[in-house]
Design brief:
Layout (H helix, E strand, L loop, with lengths): L12 E5 L12 E7 L2 E11 L5 E10 L4 H8 L5
Antiparallel strand pairs: 1-2, 2-3, 3-4
Length: about 80
């Protein structure tokens, strides 16, 4: 995703061009998140071309996006337990 966590409104999502794509061709072309009923899920997209020459995106929804505990504890300088 992007450098900053992006919060989606319910029923909406966001995709960013994958800056790590060049490391591995199997990685998605775009990464982001999609909000389903108030919960953000990982979203990945690959750009493909059909046999007829039409460009399209193939999508995959992944796991629920969770906040990183290390970021939470470093933001408020508290011990995480």
């Amino acid at each position: 995703m992007s450098d900053k966590q992006y919060q989606n409104e319910p029923g909406k999502g966001v995709l960013f061009r994958n800056r790590f794509k060049e490391d591995n061709e199997k990685r998605p072309d775009f990464v982001g998140s999609l909000n389903v009923e108030g919960v953000d899920y990982e979203l990945a997209a690959w750009q493909n071309t059909s046999k007829g020459g039409v460009v399209y995106l193939s999508l995959r929804m992944g796991d629920e996006v969770r906040e990183k505990k290390s970021e939470e504890s470093s933001d408020n300088n508290e011990v995480p337990f």
